Automatic annotation (TrEMBL):
Domain Aminoglycoside phosphotransferase: 20-247
Record bears the keyword Transferase: yes
Designated name of the protein: Acyl-CoA dehydrogenase, putative phosphotransferase
Pfam families according to UniProt: APH
Species assigned in the record: uncultured Mycobacteriales bacterium
GO molecular function, one term: transferase activity
SUPFAM superfamilies in the cross-refs: Protein kinase-like (PK-like)
Signal peptide positions on this chain: none
Organism phylogeny: Bacteria, Bacillati, Actinomycetota, Actinomycetes, Mycobacteriales
Presence of keyword Transferase: yes
Length: 332
């Protein structure tokens, strides 16, 4: 069904019989390479059986990509949105395929082997985040994309609700972290576009220039909100060599700057006050713990492209404990 649809939409019969390949690495929305003699594109759709369907809105992803195209934030060009669920069982969209390096727990042989190149990767990642937070939502058609007023309170309610819906077993550290976050909720400033899941393995690095981000991916959690939430979550995923590894990252390799360097560069680029950042890091740990719980739930429901039990559930408690430790820095 997909091939004839693409051939008709794009007026090119070469799309009639495409090959479709699932892309490994995604844990939430599903990503596929769709290839034909006419070229190769990327298809994004919700999980096969979404546990929480409201978290997988393809229209929002397509909208933010369309809005950011042409800004200093590099994004894949959106090509086609199909809001009709009848064709593939759910709405989906297609976007440009951007070739490059996605750095997860290792780097390709010969790529960014020097400390200078790893510093360049770090600077590029922070600089693109600063560029995103500098975008005027109204100027790119995103004035109504979210409600920045009360953003943190709503986010905390949302993720606490997700946790209550997804929880299985007794994990008191997660409940304690949620209560502590609520007790120390910062005032919500600003209201720029926030990515919601900004980290190194959600960007494509230029294959010839490690110091250039070719594209930012995975916009499913984007909205208008508090920019420090993006920075806090980035720090959760950023692993200096002496950090406890809850989420393995290539940034544990020698040559990658520590977390303080990211914070300093972001503050210098944006001029924002980052004194409350420990709360946001703690919230990032809480959010990631709930995301992991959702992945585990989808694995159990058979809704993932790869439903292998990889022990992710055992990371939920340690993530919450790490969040509580980060939050303690705020109240010292």
């Amino acid at each position: 069904m997909l091939g004839p649809y693409l051939a008709a939409e794009w007026g090119d019969g070469r799309w009639r019989e495409p090959t479709v390949e699932v892309v490994a690495g995604g844990r939430s929305n599903l990503t596929y390479f769709v290839s034909s003699p006419a070229g190769s594109v990327v298809l994004r759709r919700p999980p096969l059986r979404a546990v929480r369907p409201t978290a997988h809105d393809m229209t929002r992803e397509h909208r933010v990509l369309s809005a950011l195209a042409g800004t200093p934030v590099p994004v894949p060009a959106p090509l086609l949105l199909c809001p009709d669920p009848d064709l593939l069982g759910a709405p989906f969209y297609l976007m440009e395929r951007v070739d490059g390096v996605i750095a997860r727990d290792r780097l390709p042989t010969g790529y960014a082997g020097s400390a200078a190149e790893r510093v360049a990767i770090t600077h590029a990642l922070v600089d693109v985040l600063a560029e995103l937070h500098a975008v005027d939502p109204a100027a790119v058609g995103l004035a109504g994309f979210g409600r920045p007023d009360g953003y943190l309170a709503r986010q905390l309610r949302r993720w606490s609700g997700e946790w209550q819906a997804l929880r299985s077993g007794d994990l008191p550290a997660v409940d304690a972290l949620a209560e502590e976050l609520a007790a120390g909720l910062p005032a919500t400033p600003g209201g720029p576009v926030v990515h919601g899941d900004y980290r190194l393995d959600n960007v494509v690095l230029d294959p010839a220039d490690p110091g250039r981000v070719a594209a930012v991916l995975d916009w499913e959690m984007s909205t208008l909100g508090d920019p420090l939430a993006d920075l806090g979550l980035l720090l959760v995923y950023w692993q200096p060599a002496d950090a406890a590894t809850v989420t393995p990252s290539v940034t544990a390799l020698p040559g990658f700057p520590g977390r303080d360097a990211l914070v300093e560069r972001y503050a210098a680029r944006t001029g924002r006050d980052v004194s409350a950042l420990p709360w946001y890091v703690a919230f990032g740990h809480f959010k990631l713990a709930v995301v992991v719980a959702g992945i585990v739930a989808r694995q159990r429901a058979g809704a993932m492209a790869d439903n292998t039990d990889d022990g992710l559930g055992a990371r939920i408690g340690p993530l919450a404990e790490a969040g509580r430790a980060a939050l303690a820095e705020t109240v010292r």
